[in-house]
Queue: 3 jobs
Job 1
Amino acid sequence: MRPPYPPPPERSAELRRRFAEEARSERPDLSTLCLLVGAEADGALDEAGLDAAQMELDRLAGRVPFRPGGSMAWATALHHLLGVQDGFRGFPADYQRLESSLLHEVLRRRRGLPILLSVVWMEVARRAGAPVYGVALPGHFVVGFGPQEQQVLVDPFDGGRVLGVGDAELLVAGATGAALDPSMLSPADPLDVVLRILNNIRAWAAARPERSDVSLWAVELSLLLPSHPARLRYERAQLLVQRGDFVEGAVELEEYAELIDAVDEGAAERVRGQARSARAMLN
């Protein structure tokens, strides 16, 4: 197995308990949740490492000019600090690395996926007092500053370049072929950001069948979020069967079949057939 290596079971159980507790808190902390995802992926990330990552975000925030002004001034200040001076940005090759979805590694490498780089921008700017939030454009996460009527968008993957309306339209058209809808520019909920990060990790692992371990923990963390797609239970069941845990996988398939039986009897029966096939593998 290639690094990063997962933590031992006892450590994983503790991390998941803390992840679930934070996700269900009144105001979930985005950086904490992202770092707990990183610790679930990387057994080398201990408590000292978690603290060090938070302190690095604090250190970067301490270098932001004191309340530089309006939305554009905040965007420019963060671009100059993080994008120009510190070199945080992304490259196409970063999509091929699991580390690009792990906050502690993005802080170390100063490279990552758009959404993780956006988390760095958001967390540094928030600590510095900026009116900042994530903007979950289809296919490309960016960061917004200020109220919607004065909104300034930046692309952390491109070093924090300020985006005009035309730039945002091109990003959406390139990802979906559709037009930019104003609703796409609304602030993203922190838990939706975390789910999207976990979806990216699952997509990375799905292309690498030998890393079904990553697929499994990413699904299981997603299931700990207060709101998640029900189909993730089906995905977890399939992963369990794929990894040779036929009994638990079959039980999970049967429970999922019961869940969907009222809305799609045909699909439920097909899932029950998969459960029977999984149990037959024990013979």
Job 2
Amino acid sequence: MILAEDSTLLREGLIRLLAEEGHDVVAAVGTAPELIKATEEHRPDVVVTDVRMPPDHKDDGMRAALEIRERWPEVSVLVLSQYVENRYATELITSTGGKVGYLLKDRVAQVDEFLEALDRVAAGGAAFDPEVVRRLLTRTTHVDPLETLTAREKAVLELMAQGLTNARISAQLHISQSAAEKHINAIFDKLGLSGSTGLSRRVMAVVRYLGS
């Protein structure tokens, strides 16, 4: 096993914990480049890495994990993070072949859960923190109403934002005024703008558009 963690205190604590549980830590490194180099040298059965690591202290550890997945697919990877990085978490979760896990660092304090996840990943399975999955599901199931508009409706809304009247919009798009009004009503419906609020639906639609 290779452990990648830039916090010396946490790294040493994890080394001791893993050794006590019978895991052989062949290398413990503090930077993403060292992780890649150590993996190439030792070809471990599993890599445990933090997301934020030197040299950039951003997502270096995660990018190293994805590189390892690509270059050495036989190596299992367990990523630890203090936060959910949506883009990379999604890439890991949707990757094929198992041998991957993503846990929030708070889960490490729950030693039994951490070790169970590690064993599962090392055995070729997958282990994802419930909070990570919940946040990703919340993110992916929320659809921006603006994204539901057709290309024509988006064009109409753009002209509305420019202050054009229905007559000017129909002339600009070479459609009838009734067709323009139909598109505008469809926009109101898709954006959930009712006429019962006392506010101008046209203004509210434009505000939504400009705020996107």
Job 3
Amino acid sequence: MPANVKNDQKHNIRTITTTAELAEFCKLAKAQPYVTLDTEFLRERTYYSKLCLIQAALPPASVTRTPGGVAVLIDPLAEGLSLEPLYDLFRHKPTVKVFHAARQDLEIFFHDAGVMPDPLFDTQIAAMVCGFGEQVGYETLVRKIARQPLDKSSRFTDWSHRPLSDAQASYALADVTHLRAIYEFLSAQLEKTGRAPWLAEEVAVLLNPETYITRPEDAWERVRTRSGSPRFLAVVRELARFRETYAQERDIPRARVFKDDALIELASTRPLTEGDLAKSRLLLRDARRGEIANGILAAVKVGVETQDLPKPAPEEPGRPGNAALAELLRVLLKAKADAAGVAPRLIASASDLDAIASGARDLPALAGWRAEVFGNDALRLAAGEIALSAQNGSVRVVPVPIAS
């Protein structure tokens, strides 16, 4: 932990409830090299996350000259508070916006205001690039880098309830005060190793609006089915389209409309009347009548009658003919990831390896920094240009002599 970073979560804590106060804080933040941020939200009863709290902290010994810097809670539920000063900070290029596992936070800001924090630093991704393992949690980084304990007892509390308890406030502030030490350590490591461009590639995905757009016409692709029948899939597509549209328009969880197992049942039985819906074992009572029932029946009808049939997904790549190559690629990935000090999953997933073994080449694992670390040798291994050898307890890449 850097000497100038203190465990100061009990100091300088205040809750911002007015636009003027928020503008004052954001003005201070714009004068800093970075600001750490986090959110608390609820999503159990809505389709889109309900933003309940924003936490922010400035670097230690910042412009206020206080020993621990400034750490604040921002209450988006406060009457009359506009978040526009915060969004203006998000657009301010000189100040890095630091989050841990930012995807859900960014989804909220994108859907609420169409804005992204740029430049962005995600400490979870940076930690994987720096060799801290796969999907490393914030608590782990606090313990290993900031060398502080972390009280997670308030994690699942109701963040929409006011006033917040002292325990909630302390928990919330810890998510950004310790994040400063983590950011400073990881950013220094990336600079030292020259891997900042690796992080930039990953952050570009997070900042792409397409990452957060769910189109109803594509919703069926997330439904796991056992049947590859084009007609069956057509009904699944229309039912998933209706469910996604209905849930988005009313801001309710898609499971409140009907769950995936009910969708599969409906696609199999293809009900024609409300009487048929009443026979469903899995459909919620509210879905057997009214708007949802009408929507289900209309979707089934479209799916049964359409001539625009979806194509079944290709069989799982890498099986059976390329199973041996896929296993060799797994060994290569482990060896390359260990040598680079990077989490293997950040480089390639199991399905990526199967796809490479089956001949796929348009994959992130074969481009950018991943190609340098793993992808280029993966292609050489698939082409028979190199082999793997065990030497002194480690796996090595050896060239295969070219037959004359």
